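Please produce the structure of this protein holding magnesium ion.
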Amino acid sequence: MLEVKELSVAYGDVRALWDVSLEVEEGSIVALVGANGAGKTTLLKAISGLLRPTSGRIVFEGEDLAQLNTKHRVDRGIVMVPEGRRLFQTLTVLENLRLGAYLPKARAVYDDSLERVFTLFPVLKDRMNGKAGLMSGGEQQMLAIGRAVMARPRLVMIDEASLGLSPILTRTIFDLIVALNQQDTTVLLVEQNIHMALKICNKAYVMKTGHMVLSGTGEELLANEDVRKAYVGERGSRL
Amino acid sequence: MGSLVQILVNGILLGSMYGIAAIGLSLIFGTMRIIFLAQGTMIVFFAYLTYWSFEKAGIDPYLSLFTVIPLAFVVGLGLFYLLFRKAAALEDKNVSLLLAVGLMYLIDNLILKIWGATPRGVNLSYSGAVLVIGDIRVPWLRFALLGLALASALVVYLFLKRTRVGTAVRAASEDMEATTLQGINSVWVCAISFAIGIALAGVAGVGMATVYSFDYQFGFIFAIKALVALALGGIGNVFGALAGGLLLGIIENLAAYYIGIAWIEVASYGVFMLVLIFLPQGLFGRRGLVKKV
Ligand SMILES: Nc1ncnc2c1ncn2[C@@H]1O[C@H](COP(=O)(O)OP(=O)(O)OP(=O)(O)O)[C@@H](O)[C@H]1O
Ligand SMILES: [Mg+2]
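Below is the modeled complex.
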């Protein structure tokens, strides 16, 4: 479904990605892991069109995305849940969701999407008219994902969904991501919580200082000695 | 007592103009993150157009609202795409700010070239009409300014709260990148809010033409007054900006009455400094001109 081929991205003169390749199959969950500053967010931003690559190609369902801006990519179904949620804090929960379904295609099925979101995240329904910024961290993360669901994504890219959440909430969010995936949404997941990410994914990639260094199934990487030592750690989860 | 009420009423009516201008500044600041210093000059420019269509074609200023507002909106779109589109995308906002300053002087001098340096004003047949309530006397035209200001604030408020594009404008004022990620064309959103800001300059220009005499240098002073009003009202709140304008008008009138006409400017800039130092969020705004640290 998505193919990233030897992609390089730079911030001004500083290169952040070096010939990075990655493939996401339709219907799968792909995890992207790596230490701080490895370039995970940079890669997602390049895929969603916020950053222009210096070389390489991004192909989505057979179409080269080079000429398409973010709006067109969202319209094709590539939707990103950014790092730090980036909700519109002073807007209500409902307004945030409405903005998620801004484009005509998504707007046409707005009612249906809203029902879907409220089924996935019932708490959002109760908070519908409250300001997004006043919700708890977990609720805000649900809203961030809900807002993406409103866009009817074919591929949703979630950057650090569990950041700052308690272990229980992290579980909840992961369960919801799996549920979302079962409803025909392909997921590209960037995670610090590597143990959990590797457990739910079909395939995983490891990045290090701007390079793609390893890939395999979740089990393979969990069994990999280097990955265990470098990322999974003694207590089995955090970096 | 009567005179104090009269001062308050005069202040509110003077402040209406500041209020309209401040709402425009607030909208433009929200998405483009610059203080649009050319706002006052745009107001004067539209005041001249109103004056001109009155002199040449005898069109009543209030009638010309119907042409000036759409015209100003289109001028706003044009200016945005011609001048600010690239600069607005830059991290460094100084480019946009300098462009605004350049635009201000350019239009000042354009006005000077076209209409000369003599102050102008519209002399309406009904400009002497006065509303008398007890011992309060209010010229109808000034009263109409308050109406214009309230209507402007209400329309902008409804646009921001009730329409899709308006919601996108509020979103973009908070987080431009996240807005883009929703598939929203953030350049268009900036263009729209800029154009509405200029349309408000059109409204204020018509208002100015009916009660003030103005010349080509009046714009900058007016932009600064609108800025003071905005600092008072705080950003991110339409009625806050309007209230800031009204308050500034009242302060100026109080200063003129109790200290002396010559102190008007000292009072308003003094208040400006005090607000920036002690109330950087403004009196009613969620956010001030200065970011809270
Ligand atoms: N806006 C920017 N300007 C310049 N350099 C940047 C910018 N954003 C990121 N970088 C650099 O690019 C590299 C990759 O950053 P990126 O944010 O993609 O990493 P990441 O894997 O998402 O890290 P984290 O786990 O901390 O979120 C880092 O060296 C970072 O310093
Ligand atoms: Mg990151």
